[in-house]
Amino acid sequence: MPGNLAASSNVTLLFNSAAGLVNPTTAGNYTLLVQTSAQPVNATSPSYAIDAPVPVVVGNITVEPDSIGKIASYNIPVTLGANGALAAGSGTITVTWPIDTQIPASIALSNVSVNGNNAAAVVTTPASRRAVVTVPNALTSGSNVTLLFNSAAGIVNPTAAGGYVLNVQTSAQPIDAASPTYDIFSEEPPPPLGTGALVHANTAGARFHKSNQSKVFYHDGAWWLAAYDGSEGDWFLWKYAAGAWTRTIFLESSSGARLDLVPDLANNRFFFLVSHDNDSKVGRAVYSAGAWTVQATTTLSGITHDSNDLPLTMALGKNGHLWVFRIDNGALRVLRSTDAGATWSSDTSLKSSLGSSDGMTDCVVFSSGGVNYVGVFYSVNATAGGVSYGFLKHDDNAALGTWTDESSELTFFGNERADSKLSALAASDGTVYLLTVNANASGSDPSNTLYKRASDGLWSKFKVNTANGTQQWRSPALAIDGSSNRLYVMGVRTSTPNQGQYKFCNIGSEGSLEAKAVTTIFANNTDNFDHLSAPAQPFSAASGMMLAAANLTGGTVWYNHIVSGAAKSSAPEEPVAAAAPIVEGAGVYPNPFNPETTIRFALVDDNDVRLQIFDIRGALVRTLVNRNLPRGIHEARWNGRDRAGNFV
């Protein structure tokens, strides 16, 4: 003791932070023991709490450019916690980038800023993809911080396209917080090219709508589109090849019809649904010697779309069965044909008391867990507290009336409710998407929501546009780029002039859509557009994406053939020093195998590992490992199935 202490005196013993004491690594209640030389028996302290560390909150990451292998700037917004203050010149922010991002050995202070001021210090560890930034100014608890690594910092994007997450922690909050997913793309966003009007395609009489129907598909090196010819007063199939449209076969005479095209390209044919306010029809066309011929048409007596002209939709199951869905008098109804549309089942109610007499449907075909399904979404104008979106699925091998209802999964973020406008699409891996238009949205409520049903049956939802954002959409539509594994969400903005717009993201990174900028795809001075139509099947880099819309002002059908730019090299822009190998030998046994194989590999040190299976075309089949592993020998088994549970 530095001085004498009297009996019965109160004493304060202080170990300051420089003493180097480290708290336990597990949160909980603890006690310590105290004794003195005069009282040499342990006394137990009252319980004191060690709290779990609270991470910072990381906002949406902005990467520019967001292409593979590019030197890029990273804008990282962070919100500090209630006890997260950082002192000037000593407080630090640590960023750890995901695997395959390249961090230079050193970064100049002028290339890193904290709230617009150059960093006080920057220390990088390239092997672990980490940068520790010392803040130049004091940051108070709860404050919003913008950490910017500009492009001169030399950070190189991953060489594989996909969704990525980085981690952030501070010296005051020393536990990693994961960022929202950000996308790195294989190409620059494709520019809209070739927008123009189809010759003679007059929507003033045809009423080219709505976006729950698909009027466009790709086959034999050409795009095909159903559109009304105002000069003839009939619906025709139009062909787009070599940059020009030509009119081909007659499909329907009624200007009030709504056509839905369902291709069956493996059998060189397509089916077309003529949704009508009188008797609807289903037709079949076959392809031979470069031309289509309508082979048969069947009338669906008494089957009509509703009084608000919300058209029927049709799907072709993987077992060859045709399905037609509609909302009628507040009920979801279905018809099925097992003989390519020649004969049809009776009109069957799947679900009644939907809360509104009118509504819209869209349908998808998908596989999950090795089972083939047809699924149908519905929307009705929401009543207070009522169910307004729904989804039912049907096993191809089940009886007509046997459906599984998953409607309870389609929940809302806030006060938004349904409008009777939707669009659905299925990806090749069994993932199902629904894009909606919402009513009653305010503040941060979404005006457009993307619902996702993963191939394992798990549901999630994502905001696309919000009520307090810069745009809200009607006429929703979806498309998938099968070559780049991208999802396109699109609609027509509600503010005038009404222009067609889209956003896109990598599949799996749907959470990034809310922060994405829009690209305009249909605009012409003050013209108003509506009723987008997109392909219901994934398109490829070879075909590009064909979109169509009604120009309400000019009374014409417009198209936009969007083609991707040249693919970017997977190599980084600048050579980097070769790193020590992280894998020391790998083997597969048995090889060949049936039905299962084991992949064995050894790590020379702790490291992040991503082990993936690709097919001969370079498409991802399955991810087996995607995490940090310790040094040593590891094994991963693969059962020969893809992400949807199907054998490959």
Describe the model.
The protein is mostly beta strands. The chain has 3 domains: 128 residues, Immunoglobulin-like (Sandwich), CATH 2.60.40; 367 residues, Neuraminidase (6 Propeller), CATH 2.120.10; 56 residues. 1% of the residues lie in helices and 46% in strands. It contains 1 helix and 50 strands. A hairpin with a 2-residue loop joins strand 28 and strand 29. The radius of gyration is 30 Å and the shape is elongated. The protein starts with 27 loop residues before the first strand and ends in a 10-residue tail after the last strand. About 3% of the residues have low confidence.
What is the secondary structure topology, with strand pairs?
Elements: E1 28-30, E2 33-34, E3 43-44, E4 48-50, E5 57-58, E6 62-64, E7 73-79, E8 92-96, E9 112-114, E10 117-118, E11 121-125, E12 130-134, E13 144-149, E14 162-164, E15 167-170, E16 177-178, E17 182-184, E18 196-202, H1 203-206, E19 216-219, E20 222-229, E21 234-241, E22 244-252, E23 258-264, E24 269-275, E25 280-288, E26 291-300, E27 313-316, E28 322-328, E29 331-337, E30 348-351, E31 359-368, E32 371-380, E33 389-395, E34 404-405, E35 417-426, E36 432-439, E37 446-453, E38 459-466, E39 473-481, E40 486-493, E41 500-506, E42 519-522, E43 529-533, E44 545-551, E45 556-562, E46 583-589, E47 597-603, E48 607-614, E49 620-629, E50 632-638
Antiparallel strand pairs: 1-4, 2-3, 5-7, 6-7, 7-13, 8-12, 8-15, 9-10, 9-13, 11-12, 14-17, 15-16, 18-45, 19-20, 20-21, 21-22, 23-24, 24-25, 25-26, 27-28, 28-29, 29-30, 31-32, 32-33, 33-34, 35-36, 36-37, 37-38, 39-40, 40-41, 41-42, 43-44, 44-45, 46-47, 47-50, 48-49
